[in-house]
Task: structure prediction
Amino acid sequence: MTPPPDQPPAPPAKPKPTSTDRRARHEDRLVTIRLRLAIWRELDERGIITPAEIGVALGMPATEAAGLLTRRQWREGDVALLEAAATRLGVQVPRSAVIGTRRQAD
Result:
C-alpha cells in the first residue's frame, strides 16, 4: 500500500539488535555505571566539585566532562572516555569484575 502523495514515505524499520549485541551493550552499561561512581567518589575525595574543576581534572571541557558523568543515555564511546578519565585520576575499576559477575549469573 502506498502512502498518499501529500505524506512522506515511512522511515525504514530499525533492525532489531541480536542477543549478543544486547548483552554487550548491557555489559558496557554496567561498566559505565561503575566507572562513573568510582570517578565521582575520587573527585569528591579530592574536593573537586565545580564543573570547571571537574573538566580540568578529567582533561576535557567542563560541559563535556559534566555530560559524560551525568548523562543517562548510553552512547558509543562512553566506556573508552570514562576509562581514560579513570586512568587520569588513578582510579581502577576492573572491567572483568563486571563481566565476570554477569556471566556467572547466567
The chain has one domain: 20-105. Confidence is low (pLDDT under 50) at residues 100-106. Residues 19-45 form the longest helix (27 residues).
